[in-house]
Amino acid sequence: MSEIGVLPGDKIASIEEYETGHNTFDDGNMVRAATVGIHDLNKETRVANIKHPKMISIPRVGDVIIGTVAAVMSSMIAVSIDYINGKPTTSKVECICSTRNLRKKNVALVNDIVTLKILNHLNGTIHAAIEEPHLGVLFTKCRKCGGKVVQMRDAIKCIDCAWIDERKLSANFGNSDFVKLRE
Ligand SMILES: [Zn+2]
Question: Which residues have a beta carbon within 5 Å of ligand 1, which is an ion?
């Protein structure tokens, strides 16, 4: 076994030679590292793995994640992943989600809790979707005063200052048990 340190996005092998294993993804051509770690090509099973001391878990396509919004840009949000399919993860892997088609001023704010579905892995970046009804914001606060908000149809209203604002709310918004959701 060769022990070579790799960085996220590094080419590990061609997809004709090896399949993706732990902490790797394929870009349609090459198997690439999804995390920092040690290169491990299993010549018998033809599976390429990246060993990481903490076994960082990388969500797969179709997984539903819950995470914390780390940054909000004009047409996308970056989310630090806290749960993958309901299981906690401490690896703090980030995904990005396009918000361009949502026609909302504030899809989500920094530090909001959101649930997203993983769409694909492209060039070392994990892309997620927010459009489906069960996806979107699970927890948010008032943008003006930081107060608690309640849902009013598609909008939210602050119970402290009465500010009305928009988010892309999940159908599970307001369900305080969201971290216990298993599916
Ligand atoms: Zn307020």
Answer: 142, 144-145, 147, 158, 160-161, 163
- Tell if the pTM clears 0.70, that is, is over it: no
Judge whether 20 lies within some domain.
yes
What is the tens place of the pLDDT at every residue in 73-121?
999 999 999 899 988 887 779 999 999 989 888 999 999 999 999 999 9
Q: Which are the contacts of 54, defined by CB distance < 8 A and separation ≥ 6?
A: 90, 91
CATH of the domain at 34: 2.40.50.100
Domain membership of residue 13 as a residue range: 5-51
Residue 14, phi then psi, degrees to nearest 5:
-85, 150
Total residues belonging to the chain: 183
**Same domain? 79 vs 118:** yes
Could you read off the pLDDT of 121-131 as tens digits, one per residue? 988 899 999 99
The alpha carbon of 142 and the centre of ligand 1 are apart by a number of angstroms equal to: 5
Ramachandran sector of residue 174 (left: φ over 0; alpha: ψ -120 to 50; beta: rest): left
CA 111 to ligand 1 center in whole angstroms: 16
